[in-house]
Amino acid sequence: MEVLYEDNHIIIVNKAPGEIVQGDKTGDEPLVETLKAWIKEKYAKPGNVFCGVVHRLDRSVGGVVVFAKTSKALARLNEMFRTGKVHKSYLAISRNRPPKDADRLTGYIHSVERNNKSYISATPVKGAKEAALSYRYLGASDRYHLLEVNLETGRKHQIRVQLSSVGCPIKGDLKYGDKRSNPDGSISLRAHRIRFEHPVSGNLIDVTAPLPADPLWQAFSQIVSDNDAD
Known about the structure:
Elements: E1 2-6, E2 10-15, H1 31-42, E3 52-53, E4 62-68, H2 71-82, E5 87-94, E6 102-112, E7 117-121, E8 129-140, E9 145-151, H3 158-165, E10 189-197, E11 204-208, H4 215-218, H5 221-229
Parallel strand pairs: 4-10
Antiparallel strand pairs: 1-2, 2-4, 3-4, 5-9, 5-10, 6-7, 6-8, 8-9, 10-11
């Protein structure tokens, strides 16, 4: 587990693809429990350790995840996420170049529990929630294209379904239209950067997750570095 930032109230980690943030029906140990054990051992804490889940990433997605170490931070972060005061940037790799170099995508997303899949429509449908994101084309490697995505809303599988809707399914994402899975079961989507005011101190928190060592991601390392420096 890679800790990217920690203080008395929050801890931010770099989640690996394949990990689950919170417990589910698989029974696999979630990241929040791993983190509790890590905090307990590091600080020799007696009794139970508080660690609150603020937001989640899909199991197949890696990158930045924020947890709260105090109930005060958890309540305030929950409100900040709810009201859009947390800025999240993602990196996505697709086999296809998007139709525009930059665009804002909107629609209405509804999820079907039976097949754990989200669907998007241009007009409202029963049970659907409005969704919006913006993307920017960053560049290409020999075979793939890299996009930066900024979420305005946080719907289930939102980036996956919205990029697929413009002909850019994420590499490895069979559920939303890519041709082949990735060897490790991940999809080529990362929560790359998160920015927000600290829920207690008010200081700016700006944390970026390093790219994986995988050659696919490393092929874009210079492009990402230049983009982060802008």
